Amino acid sequence: MSPWLVVGLGNPGPEYAGNRHNVGQMVLDVLARRMNGSFTAHKARARVLDGRLGVMPGGAPGPRVILARPGSYMNVSGGPVGALVKFYDVEPDHLLVVHDELDLPAESLRLKQGGGEGGHNGLKSISSALGTKDYVRLRVGIGRPPGRMDPADYVLRDFPASERADLGVTLEEAADAVEEVVTLGLDKAQQRLHTGSRS
Question: What positions are marked as the site Discriminates between blocked and unblocked aminoacyl-tRNA (predicted)?
Fold first, then answer.
C-alpha cells in the first residue's frame, strides 16, 4: 500500500522560520514531535522523517507516513516534492500538502483534494512537477493583509506576538487533521474538521 507523504511548505533558513508563509512547516514540527522523530537529509533536496503516525480504528499503529520539508524556496517546491513522490512511490491521493492560505481567516483550517491553486506559487510548482492537481491539501488560514499591504510582504512577515498563543492551538488542530486523514481517510477527516464533529 502506498505510504503517505505529508509535505509542509515554506522557505528554507532560520530567517524565514517564523513567517506566515512557513506555517506548513510549523505543522510538520508538531507532527514530528508526535512521531518521536527528527528530520534527516534526503537526496531529493529535502529533510524527511519516515515513521508511523496516529492509531488506526481498532487500536493498530497508524500507517507509514513520510514527513517532508523541501529544501528549496516555496515557488520551486515542485522539484523536491516530485522527486520524493517518485522515490517513495506515492500515489497522488496519498500526497498531503500543508500550506498557508490567504483566502481563509486566521486560525481556520480546510481540507480538499484537487482543484485550483488559488495563486499559491508553491502549489503551482507542485502541480506542474507532478502533472496533476489531484493531491490532498490542508489549507491553514492566515487571513488577508491589512490595508494596502502587499500580500507578498505579508506572507514573509513573522506571526506577531498577539497571534502566537492562538497559533499554537491552530498548529495542534492542523496536526490532528493530518492524523485523521491518514488514519480515517479524507472524507471522514473533512467531515470532522469542517463540521467540528470531533469526539
Answer: 11
CA distance 191 to 187: 6
16 is in an annotated binding site: yes
- Is 154 labelled as part of a ligand binding site? no
What residues act catalytically? 21
- What length does the chain have? 199
Task: Provide CB contacts within 8 A for 127, sequence distance 6+.
Answer: 78, 117, 133
What are the per-10-residue average pLDDT scores of the chain (199 residues)? Answer: 94 96 98 97 97 94 97 97 97 97 94 92 97 97 93 94 90 97 96 77
Please indicate if the annotation marks 135 as binding a ligand: no
- pTM for the structure as a whole: 0.95
Domain made up of 4-195: CATH architecture: 3-Layer(aba) Sandwich (3.40)
